[in-house]
Amino acid sequence: MVDADSWHKIATKRRIAIQDSIPEDWRLDSLPSEEIVLNFPGQCGILSRSELEITNLPATELVYQLGTGKLKAVDVTLAFCKRAAVAQQLLNCMHEFFPEAALAQAKQLDEYFLSQKKTVGPLHGLPVSLKDQLRVKGTETSMGYVAWIGRRDEEDSVLVKLLRKAGAVFYVKTSVPQTLMVCETVNNIIGRTVNPRNKNWSCGGSSGGEGAIIGIRGSVMGVGTDIGGSIRIPAAFNSAYGIRSSHGRLPYAGMANSMEGQETVHSVVGPIANSISDLCLFMKAVLSEEPWKFDSKVIPLPWRVSEVESIQGRIAKGGLNIAIYPQDGIVCPHPPILRAIQSVQSALDKGGHHVFPWAPYKHEFGVNLINKIYAADGCTDVYQNIKLSGEPAIPNIKDLLNPDLPKADVNEVWDMQLQKWQYQCEYLEKWRQLEDEIGQEIDAIVAPISPTAAIRHDQFRYYGYASIFNLLDLPSVVIPVTFADKDKDPKNEQFQPMGQMDADVQSEYDPEAYHGAPVAVQIVGRRLSEERVLAIAQEVSQLLGNNIDHLS
Amino acid sequence: MVDADSWHKIATKRRIAIQDSIPEDWRLDSLPSEEIVLNFPGQCGILSRSELEITNLPATELVYQLGTGKLKAVDVTLAFCKRAAVAQQLLNCMHEFFPEAALAQAKQLDEYFLSQKKTVGPLHGLPVSLKDQLRVKGTETSMGYVAWIGRRDEEDSVLVKLLRKAGAVFYVKTSVPQTLMVCETVNNIIGRTVNPRNKNWSCGGSSGGEGAIIGIRGSVMGVGTDIGGSIRIPAAFNSAYGIRSSHGRLPYAGMANSMEGQETVHSVVGPIANSISDLCLFMKAVLSEEPWKFDSKVIPLPWRVSEVESIQGRIAKGGLNIAIYPQDGIVCPHPPILRAIQSVQSALDKGGHHVFPWAPYKHEFGVNLINKIYAADGCTDVYQNIKLSGEPAIPNIKDLLNPDLPKADVNEVWDMQLQKWQYQCEYLEKWRQLEDEIGQEIDAIVAPISPTAAIRHDQFRYYGYASIFNLLDLPSVVIPVTFADKDKDPKNEQFQPMGQMDADVQSEYDPEAYHGAPVAVQIVGRRLSEERVLAIAQEVSQLLGNNIDHLS
Fold first, then answer.
1. Preceding omega of B206 cis (within 30 degrees of 0)
2. Minimal Cα–Cα distance from A534 to chain B, Å?
3. Which of A131, A386, A510, B139 is deepest in the core (most CB within 10 A)?
4. Is A258 inside any structural domain?
5. Which CATH number is A450's domain given?
6. How many domains does chain B have?
7. Which residues are registered as beta bridge partners of B221?
8. How many CB atoms lie within 10 A of CB A50?
9. Does the annotation count B206 as an active-site position?
10. Predicted confidence (pLDDT) per residue in B67-122, tens digit
11. Does any CB of chain B come closer than 8 Å to the CB of residue A300?
12. What would the pLDDT profile of B292-306 be if each residue is shown by its tens digit?
């Protein structure tokens, strides 16, 4: 047994070790006093002008320059290591930082390129940040549990192996909340990870370290996981892009997880980045390695350019058919989110597309069901890991992991699984019904991803906008739309809540506190149609004026 | 509560009703005294010469003639209804028989063809037999449980809907064992279904009614399900062809099942027929209906001709690489099976292919694991359904459903799921290792599907040859190879058992009793590579001289 105080010592020692992993030269003399630190990396003097330029390039451009010898892997790696070091000091977003190993890996890649006159793969020399769950041989995976400190991994996760084979360079493992089952990022080892756009705001979670480091460009491509919004919420709160692929599209084998072996609702892995093109670069690189030969859960579907072209063709002649809903009938989003849905609708209209209202089908049933699934083991697994060290549970944890819920019986779990399947099939039927009504295919659903913009700490309550698509297992791409604006988004004084959760969420809205907070939407497609959803997200992004890179 | 005798009355009444569903004109005056009744339909005088011809045609030829107007749906349906009626009287293979509805459906199809000059779909007018689990509006689904008698279905299962849309005609629901969890077919409603090649032999199970009716050509295309061999064993025991597709290839939604909602190992649905081409016809017809728009578990993969062509290309230049194993290290197959594996190996060698020995990887672990998964709920679900009417459990049931096993805890189920996934990934690694050794792709694994030829009643014991690929979720096609032969397959008097199960299985071998019993093998491919496995099975069948139809 562990004595009551010892977890604190272990955690403190670990926290100091993380700080100590930052080389002396990259340490800030003093931290900025402002809450907004987004631009501080460019001002702090740690990065040279060319390093700043490198870290501001898209991943697609970086791999192009790396692949043509215009950039060296060592220089790119060094630039991102330095920026990540600054990010860590500002945002507290790391669990592991290993710049030396990264630079050694980059050096080998440069040597290979010099001698072989070719790259090792499509990500040759590209630094990729990894959420803590991804195992990298020799580094530690703690999952935010004090009890796991000191567990060094003996093998790479499958995805890490394949990314490595594709030429990716690893330099950092990013922070997660204790248990992973919270959409903020706080644990008893490192404390809290904060949002570069305002340290009073959450960076989201559970891939919160990824959200923060991508947001401040201490990484150009990060890997997160999502079982209830954990890729999409951090992407949304950091004005970034993220994709929750369908289960089985990308390899999860060999990763750490909460509730390992739970298969009723699968956690999925996927990229967070600063553009759709960069998300596609990741997808294409991983799929080109045939992950289905390494992870039995991965479906043998290579990247299908024809699916992208099919959407581009539909855009070119006649336009897309998009269903949209501003609220799910359980919790009404805050004014900035409602405005974002409106802007997307207008942009689609102006872009020549066809927008149809979507009636969220039994979302309350679905959200209640997935909440029961999360807690099916009476939260035995996670609380065991918490108790192992004697550390306390973090705030908010009871929203998804209520230990007062009884452990389900196997037959009850089977019943939940049956309900899930039936609900998924009914949802498909609704999709078909709308298609029958309009006599054409519905290409995607656009919806809020969260009822709020980047939220203040310890306020995240309602997971339903994200988690419904985990239950339905539909691919969802988050794109940034706008920022909360106290002038455009006044409080709705006439608000009539639909229930207690709705009242609680709405009462938290404060136009001043949210001013400037990133606002995103999600674009949802049919299962395993990642190529299509990404192509649609690209079109919507372009209509919103977000970026203009070309997709293939 | 139900009194102890009443289940017997209910079952008897139902059994009589099934017999009464056979029109007077199609009833046999007397049953043949022989045990071998395979050719009796041609001799009994119920079917006309042209009806006999129709029922001897392959499904591919039938749909061709139906689609060109050479045959009428009514005539084809009538022929199969009559032959099925004879089959029922000989083999006891039905739970429901509805020739009137079938003929009405066929008449509508003929009218459509006449007026529209085209077919409704690729199966226009083709009679398809359905395992009891498939729901057909207005008919009963009993699953072999007395307690379920009288439950009439209000809706078609998804697969039934799609087959109907493709033009299939339904006329019979075939027998299953109580609970489905036995590879023989016996229940307290109809008794036992027997093998047309010898009534002392099992027709296999749980899709045993399908095996028997396909074997005697009372059906040309049947639909079964498989969670531990239930498509493949009946196909094997009746010298027929069957495919256990990967989970998610074909739609299971809306079907009845034992242990509904159990998702640790999925039961899958698939065809049993008399040739590979007919299996392909089924697959193509169903996939052309986009089943993924109706059943959330179906993966959006249309039939890929390119995959068939890829195998045909490999056959044309250089040959296939096939791994093979004669025994799994737990139970040694009977002499006829070992001879069949030898013949396949010789045929492959002669055909210019490359055969490599496969070391079955941890099959004992895998078989034990799937047995634990079957019984994870302490068999609560199935014994509840048995007890509901007061009927007794059928023989053999404890082999897979041992009620003495304790109900697992949710965390224990998660652990089983994790073990399953890790085992699947390790199996993939073994596959890659062999490929690395030979420097080429391994196209398939050839293995026994059962340690015995068509077995005598109540003797089926060892499911491991079949169930290991349910656990691994790999597609497996069963093809007939030969028949047990008392002269070629003497008892191995020097047999040294590897364990108790091995001793039990081997001791049951009797060259006289097995003489003439069908012997099959299975051909196993990578997950979701159904097109490739079928194309390879076609090649092996051709090399064995089974048939010569062309695949596309």
1. yes
2. 17
3. A131
4. yes
5. 3.90.1300.10
6. 1
7. B273
8. 11
9. yes
10. 999 999 999 999 999 999 999 999 999 999 999 999 999 999 999 999 999 999 99
11. yes
12. 999 999 999 999 999
